[in-house]
Fold:
Amino acid sequence: MEKYNSLVVVGSQWGDEGKGKMTDYFAQRADVVVRFAGGDNAGHVINFNGQKHKVTIIPSGIFNKKVTNIIANGCVVNLINLVKEFEVIKKSGVDYGNLLISDRVQLILPYHIKIDEAQEEARGANKIGTTKRGIGPAYQDKVSRLGIRLGELEDDNFKERFQSVFDYQMKFLQTMFGVEPLNFEDTYNDLINAYNAIKDKVIDTDIFIENAIKDGKKVLFEGAQGALLDIDHGTYPYVTSSNTSANNASTGSGISHKLIDSTMGVVKAYSTRVGAGAFPTELTNEIGDGIRERGHEYGSNTKRPRRVGWLDAVALKHAIRTSGIDSMFITLLDVLSGIDEINICVRYELDGKEINSVPSTNQKYEKCKPVYMSNPGWKEDITQVKSFDQLPDAAKKYLKMMEKICEVPISGFSVGPDREQTILLENIF
Ligand code: GDP
Ligand code: IMO
Ligand code: MG
Structure:
């Protein structure tokens, strides 16, 4: 494989694949890290030097001092939560001076959170299981042109403009959901206070990113969520509200797709899902419980237990195709130690027919039965492994089988949460 200067890192399943860990790892050799989609619905855990850090909207490159970290236009940002996140990482000794925020990001405002909660309630049994961070309503407002762009806070008529949007939102909340209105002056003042804490970081980041690439700098694009939660290509309606797939790295950061060299998909060695939606390979038995406990599969943001299942190669190949994934980085391989037989779903059976693709509706997806290929497991603890050769034979075969089924090379694998527990097979960046 070639060595690339601009690389997209995306989740290839339903999120929580270890994108944060991998972005932090590759950020050690990057100049710029760009977060291009989502908001503080994401939760990335990063471990190094015996310390554990968590970020939601701040890019995972923040722990590398020489990296410029950018929150780009494709994101939705809750400024109040962003400032809180700054404070937390500052306390753990991290300098966040190297952060820039696009003046084109859309804001998540307090009423978006209220609408998210009210809409979930109204969905009743069909709840999506959102993170209740206001993500859907903020993207909804962006598309219906009722959103607020960060740059607008510098306009001299901003207060009037905000008041008119705010009045509309209050009417909507009250008439649709009977929710008590928020106070305008308080909402406005909280917003301005948070803005004042970060305003020196707000620039037109598109130009910065384009110049960085043209100057030969090394730029990483960090995805949030996973390809199967993509609003267009994911398992709709049980998805998030943005394009999480790699193609959005260009639109979500305001540069031409021609400036992006390659895409790496982060792939968990098994599957997890948080929230509702069909999940053909789900394990609701002691094997699944064991994986959940060994992998600490509890949401870093909402603390919800993650649903666990076997690796689903049909869903993974859908992600590979819709995101143009050139190489895979396999994470949490250590969690599979101790399982006798490890399955990979290679096809589905739907209404008596075998299919090789993800159906477009949840009802059909619910009916898909996985067809498995069985692989021998291994007993050994692999958390101290430093090379492919040191892996037990069965683990080597499992990785080789993934490559064969997906027809995409594996560029490395990870055997524990720490930055050091990472084995690079190809120096792609
Ligand atoms: P992200 O949202 O894709 O960044 O992933 P999360 O951080 O939400 O979830 C991944 C979890 O797995 C985190 O707690 C990581 O510390 C942890 N993790 C990442 N890679 C590995 C690995 O190879 N082995 C183990 N055991 N844990 C890992
Ligand atoms: P990271 O970046 C896993 C899921 C939610 C819910 C659906 C919609 O850590 O991988 P939303 O609040 O976005 O409207 O919720 O998407 N979801 C995630 N699941 N990891 C994430 O982020 C997620 N972000 C959203 O659980 O099912
Ligand atoms: Mg996560």
